[in-house]
Amino acid sequence: MSIWFTEKQTQSFGITGKINQILENEKTEYQQLDMLETEQFGNMLLLDNMVMTTEKDEFVYHEMIAHVPLFTHPSPKKVLIVGGGDGGTVREVLKHSSVEKVTQVEIDNKVVEYSKKHLPHISSSFGDSRTELIIGDGFDHIIKSNNKYDVILVDSTEPVGPAAGLFTKGFYAGIAKALKEDGIFVAQTDNPWFKAELIRNAIRDTKEIFPIARLYTCNIPTYPSGMWTFTIGSKKYDPLDVDPNRISDINGQYYTPELHQASFVLPKFVQNLCK
Amino acid sequence: MSIWFTEKQTQSFGITGKINQILENEKTEYQQLDMLETEQFGNMLLLDNMVMTTEKDEFVYHEMIAHVPLFTHPSPKKVLIVGGGDGGTVREVLKHSSVEKVTQVEIDNKVVEYSKKHLPHISSSFGDSRTELIIGDGFDHIIKSNNKYDVILVDSTEPVGPAAGLFTKGFYAGIAKALKEDGIFVAQTDNPWFKAELIRNAIRDTKEIFPIARLYTCNIPTYPSGMWTFTIGSKKYDPLDVDPNRISDINGQYYTPELHQASFVLPKFVQNLCK
């Protein structure tokens, strides 16, 4: 007998994969949490039946959400991560020696707990002396923060369940207030094949609040369509103006100085979403 | 009741999608051919249970296999397509006004026949006065051709079934002989997540025969991993030296002059396959 999981990425399309065992299967206070041992991608975390991360391809998402904004800012010291309970984003942020403190606000303690247990290479940086983990609501934390952060990373789930409030114009305005006068934020903003309107709205709202607003992409095989987007909003520094020579080696598997620039070059149908 | 197809892209991972009906299901002389009407991607052609093309995302593959080499060559006149029986590649090639003749060698007449019937927007250029369609073996045609083509496009299936001979060093040597002294070829070379060795071999073999050998990528949601690669071999012209101002608008949805360059900027783990 062989057992396969299926994620319906839309009403009529999805991915399917062979699993060796179900490691966790729990309704937490906030969402459905599943941890699967898959044959192809190693251990896999799903929230509300959507793949969040896997051991084999997690490096793409985590390198790209962290290093693009952190190398855009000339000297990021205070960083906020909203969500990101698996720990991959904080792991990448800590590779930047300028960073003095990373505050992370994750709503669901169970995500942290099970990531520590089943995704040890992803969650390896929890407990680092430069990190502070707050179990709570990211939106509330942002509303209470003023002129505080150099970089804010919104490492959320899709806009259903607990993350629904994270894709609104009010949230982006709150982020702008929580950032310093030369601050930068980035948010994961799904894929252009199945969620064109989400991207159109995210980039439009970001443009209304930040002088610099740009979209960049990467390839994640376990995410819908394989193409993922991030929306970056910046008060001062343009990610396209970064001197490649200022980018140090982060010992990664995806991000490079050349890819930093190239990831902003969009296919025409994606460009059209940003007009 | 709802009916879903599944393509196993590896032994333990795949895609699945809802279908409205099975349009064709036939064992041809060369391969298993299925044409499905899918809910998400429109009509979909599968050969030997692998997705070849769909109405909704075909533009990516066809624009990227055609325009990158055809804009790299300053004046492509004679073009050969090996495979490509759905017609999408020839449709894109004919957008180049310099092209005088496109010879296409497709081994399986049934692919052409059913594409004309069920993929009319893809197969729209069969019968154009600049095209010659030969039903036959592409390898044989190349062996018999000397110093004949400006550009050769290998628009094949994966290296199983009738296309097995198309991923060998002997094939690349034959292509070099069939090309003129400043000729260019491109071949689809699968994805770096599940087929790393195939890419490593393709780029190594191409480097041994062509002075310029490069890999470029694009995003195709219905292909394994969502990231697809093409290997380009060129006797004289470097695809990275193309003047963007020489690239005219091809009225597409994916390819742009900026993306021409950016598609050659590889993630680090893909770069490593090319060393």
UniProtKB/TrEMBL annotation, chains A, B:
GO terms for molecular function: spermidine synthase activity. Gene3D superfamilies: Spermidine synthase, tetramerisation domain, Vaccinia Virus protein VP39. The active site is at 155 (proton acceptor). Residues 2-235 form the PABS domain. It is an enzyme of class 2 (transferase). Homodimer or homotetramer. This is Polyamine aminopropyltransferase.
